[in-house]
Every structure is written in C-alpha cells, then in structure tokens.
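Model it.
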Amino acid sequence: MMVVGFPTHGLVGSVAASYLVHTLDMSPVAYLTSPEFPPTVVMEEGVVTAPIRVYASKIVCGIDRSSDQLVVVIADIQPPLPLLNQLGRTLLEWAETKGIQLVVAIEGQPKEREVPGETRVVAMANRAAASLLEKYGFDAANGVVTGFAGGLLLTAIDRTTPVLCLVARAHKDYPDARAAAKVIETINPLVPLLVFDTAPLRKKAAEIEAEVRRNLAEQQRTLSTMRNAPSEGPGDMYR
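Modeled.
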C-alpha cells in the first residue's frame, strides 16, 4: 500500500505523510529527481537528500490486510504544473512494478472561513477502487480535484491498480494540522493493526492557530496605529 502526500492547501498531504514516516520510523528506499524540479534539497541530520522521497516499513495494511508493507511518498516541493501528469504516471508505474496493491493520495481543499465542528474528509477513486468507498465507509466526493492528485487520478482512470484520493477541507493560508489528523484517522481502517495517536497533531494545530491569531491581531493593531497617527504635514516655512 502506498500513501502519497504532496504540498497542497494547508499542507495536508505533506503533514500527514511526514506524520506517518516519523511515527512508524520508516526507512528511505528511493527518491525522485528531475532537471525540471526547482533547485532544492532537504537536509536530514546534515545530509542532503532529494525533495521527493520514498519511505517504507513492514506493516500489515491495505485491502483486507492483503499487504505487508506500507510505502509513503513525501514531497517538500511543489513540482511545476506541466510535470504533474507525468509525475503521477511515473509514480503509478513504479508502484505497479513493485507490486503495490493500493495507492492513496492525500489532497487539501481550501476553505474560505473557519467552520465549527470536525474537518470533513471526502474520497474519490478510480474504477478499480470504487468498491472501497462503501466497503470502508468513505464519504464519496462530488466535484473536481486538481494538482498532483488530479494528475494521478487522471493517469489511473482505466488502470487495474486501485487508487483512492482523500480530500480534506483545510485552511488556505497556513498549515492545517487538524485536517491532516483527520486524514490519518480516515486512513486508519486500511492499517488496522495500528491505532494512530493523532493527539500531537491536534495539539500542533491549536498552537499554529493561536500563533496565527496573535499575528493577525498584531497586524490589526499596527494598521490601526498607522491609520490613527497624526499626519506629518509640511512645516510653517512651507505654509
């Protein structure tokens, strides 16, 4: 089973993928690179690595516990738009050569305002994975998905490998750890022998939100001070 998390609204994909990699102490097994990628590397304990990396760990997971390895693809860059379809095709073809039986992509959908209550996660699938929506109780989506997840699903339309996309409503202006936590909880039935503790992510969400509120309040105070400050016009000699 492969989970793919790319930067998106609220960084939901990146945060969720990073959570899985670190919580499960996954090992790096591959990376992607391209001359078209931005000139960026990631440092891990002082050693540089590629901005799109693949990790793996031996875990019972997937459809009906049919898989014995979890693979996570995490990206720390937003690839150029013209590359997204090709990148989705490359990852899917690589997954098929490795015998991966289910691909789950994580996407964020921007919300314009804060909505009380739990973050909603909806799912969409290619034909090969359509039966999983009801089987695992995923909330089926209507609408359009774009970006990397859109390119991946476009490539997967007629393929036999099941591909799911989980879409969370996320804040559009800052990392939404609460939305990422909800995605992890939604994935949990596909990794049934583990119970993911998302409390740290939810705590981080509260910290991020509090910091953003402080910053917004400070900006408002600064703007108010600037508006109310007396104007400094020309001196008497110019009147």
